[in-house]
Specification:
Radius of gyration: 23 Å
Number of strands: 16
Strand order of the largest sheet: 4-3-2-1-5-6
Helix content: 25-40%
Bound molecules: manganese (II) ion
Strand content: 15-25%
Shape: globular
CATH architecture of the largest domain: Alpha-Beta Complex
CATH class of the largest domain: Alpha Beta
CATH topology of the largest domain: Creatine Amidinohydrolase
CATH superfamily of the largest domain: Creatinase/methionine aminopeptidase superfamily
Order of helices and strands: HEHEEEEEHHHEEEEEHHHHEEHHEEEH
Distance between the termini: 15 Å
């Protein structure tokens, strides 16, 4: 990727931050990368650093005890704490494009205070207990900064597009492995990491690699070592990072020639069409929650067409059948965090309680579209208990159960006209 768009990204951030500082009566903003976090108080290892999102928004450096100082009318300062340590060394940043945007100052451990500003300062950090002096994480400042991350700059979209291309290399490899071998979940997980050139702790989130019934566990990360042959399904939900920006992609597959595999394959084909239809309906000005509701109407049609659901589409929705089979939200904001927070300004309706995006869709938003359908017995059991039992073909449910579930997830950028689907674009390149 080219980095020509980075100076504009920083200039826009500087302008936005200056107006937030003026509105909230601060002289300066200090963004802390974060302090090392001990994994266990009985040993000396730390978790890999995952910097404060407001810090990564400016700069992809993954380094403990680094600080960005933003002041009106001045070039931002990047303070680095240099540790003289012959035991360890930090991974260098993947690119050097950002240094010139800052006045870079280095200090020894514990000496950042010598160069950090005094006066009326807002400090943003993931580690409030170790924050430098100032107002730590004031709520209006956090809200204003979260909002600046919802609309992406050209630079951010380039990073997300590259993060998507990396993830798609991993997904292609996992599909090949699933179709041509009896690989275990662990082997498929490792194949993904290799093909996308990532170490497990630096992926944007733990890869979900689930064979068969495991794919009905929404956040399954157990990576069984057992080889699996014959008719089964695979769900892989895995992303990649580029300069701190993460992609988040899910693909589902089925293999085998048995009647149940064929039936699951029919459902998979319909979910693929459903997902694409939802993407086609994205429009600026539309509440994202409407799109989520649309996906339930489309799912009701799929269930009726395949005979899994009985009764009218309205009944399947109103009586909670679609929500028992598709319990999670349609998608969420993407960016420097995989579930970034700025698009959930209000809670969703009670029946959409897991929805993480309740914003009105705007040009520049980047979010996921990830409808799913799963046989989750804990959610289906209550339906069998009352008159809703007649709305489900339980024999079909039994047939689909060993295949678990389906999720198809793309990353899209909202544009003036329609969307740019980063995931499909990477697949067709
Ligand atoms: Mn997701």
């Amino acid at each position: 990727m080219s980095f020509e768009t980075y100076p504009d990204h920083v200039a826009a951030l500087q302008r936005a931050t200056e107006s937030i500082l003026a509105a909230q009566h601060y002289e300066a903003l200090v963004l802390c990368s974060g302090a090392p976090q001990s994994r266990n108080r009985f040993d000396d290892q730390s978790w890999p650093l995952c910097p404060t999102p407001a810090f990564t928004h400016w700069c992809p450096l993954v380094e403990a005890d680094a600080y960005i100082i933003v002041r009106p009318g001045r070039k931002p300062t990047l303070v680095r704490t240099v540790v003289d340590d012959f035991w360890e060394t930090q991974a260098p940043p993947e690119s050097e494009h950002f240094w010139d945007a800052f006045d870079v100052v280095t200090v020894g451990p514990g000496h950042a205070g010598d160069v950090l500003p005094g006066g009326k300062v807002a400090v943003i950090t993931r580690d409030p207990g170790q924050a430098p002096p100032g107002d730590v994480n004031p709520a209006p400042m956090l809200a204003a900064l979260d909002a600046t991350r919802t609309k992406k700059s050209a630079y951010e979209i380039e990073c997300l597009a590259e993060a998507t291309r990396r993830a798609v290399r991993g997904h292609r490899r996992t599909e090949e492995k699933f179709r041509t071998t009896d690989a275990s979940e662990l082997e498929i997980h490792l194949a993904y990491l290799e093909a996308s050139e990532q170490d497990d702790p630096t992926t944007p989130y733990k890869n979900i690699v689930a064979l068969g019934q495991h794919s009905a566990v929404l956040h399954y990360v157990a990576y069984e070592r057992k080889k699996v042959s014959g008719d089964t399904s695979l769900l892989v939900d895995a992303g990649a990072k580029c300069n701190g920006y993460g992609s988040d992609i899910t693909r589902s597959y089925v293999r085998g020639t048995g009647a149940s595999a064929k039936r699951f394959g029919d459902l998979l084909a319909r979910m693929e069409q459903l997902q694409q239809e939802v993407v086609r309906r994205i429009r600026p000005g539309m509440p994202y929650e409407d799109l989520h509701d649309d996906s339930h109407r489309l799912l009701a049609d799929v269930l009726r067409d395949l005979g899994i659901g009985k009764g009218s589409a309205a009944e399947l929705i109103d009586r909670g059948i679609t929500r028992a089979l598709f319990p999670h939200g349609l998608g969420h904001s993407l960016g420097v965090m995989v579930h970034d927070v700025g698009m959930k300004l209000r809670p969703p309706r009670a029946d959409n309680k897991f929805l993480r995006n309740t914003s009105v869709i705007e040009v520049g938003h980047v979010f996921t579209i990830e409808p799913g359908v799963y046989i989750i017995d804990a959610l289906l059991a209550p339906l069998r208990e009352d008159d809703r039992a007649r709305l489900v073909d339980w024999k079909l449910v039994d047939e689909l159960r060993p295949f678990g579930g389906i999720r198809i997830e793309d990353n899209v950028v909202v544009q003036e006209r329609g969307v740019r689907n980063l995931t499909r674009e990477a697949y067709s390149a």
